[in-house]
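Morning!

This is the sequence you dropped in the shared folder:
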Amino acid sequence: MDSSSSHVSFIGIVDFTEDARWLYASESVQDLLGFEPHELISKPSLDLVHPDEFPQIRALHYSTIKQDKAAVLVYLRMRHKDPCKGYILCCVTRTVCQNVLVGSVSFAAPGPRAMHNNSTAQEVTVVTPYAKDFEFRRWHDPSPMPPCPVPGYPPSSPSEPPSPPLRFAPLPEQSVRTALILDRFSERCGILYCANDSLLPTTKVMGRSFFDFVMAKDEAVVRNWIEVVKGWGVNERGQPSDGGFGFGKFAVCTEGRDSSLPPPETVSAKGRDKHGSRARDRPSHPSYGHHSRSHGGRDTHSSNGRSKARTEELIVDAIFSAHSDGLMVILRLAS
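The structure's back. Tokens below.
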């Protein structure tokens, strides 16, 4: 493993089949594993797993989906394209997103960054035997983090033969979640990928600023969260990399708005603006004409009284994570 490869992470998406076939891999996969993205798409991701760890990882893939897990990570070995580089110890994050598994793969090395990644994850599993150093205690935890329950592995006793290879039919869709990949190198955080149409319409979000779909009242705090996650996602060289999970709740504007425009002028306590006219007599600010005044899916109206498009405000729980190629945001309806 050369030094440049040991500081990167790539975003990956796989399907629910027992082979966990690649649906998406970002460009940094070439820096870490030597493959170009097009060489992996539609191929089984489990083909890259070390043979000694294959049964446990396949079972872990199954249990992750069946138990509808989010923000969990595992340490395992993955094969490099160059046979001379052999198998690389990797940290793989996973979140079930309705009908796919989304996450990232990064080079695993002990240190503060690994400790931070583990401390923000919902669950940590160490599969590679020599990587037990990654099993550390959480603050105030009386015992190490338990591993994921893996059905039939390892055998319950030394004399018991291993279970036959796990076979399973494609599992049904799980929690309604949407995964977004954002451009981490611009202030507007343009949306590069949207996993499904469950919460936001794919045709409307692609290429637009992520903040167009954050309600104006929450934009400042969401921007702050993203800056924090970007700060976590920096390696020892100061280069973009992975940095654990952040969690938040905010309001989503499903129809989108123009977040590049300033908010409406504030109105004085007497209800008049700086020109002396009442706010209710002025047309709405163009960026909020049929968005900012809409709550809970109410119809809105333009200044001439004609009905505008129906806009819905959704409260969502979000998982944020940073990677070499972008930012990952997982959204689901808040409970």
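Headline: The longest strand covers residues 87-97.

More detail when I'm at my desk.
O.
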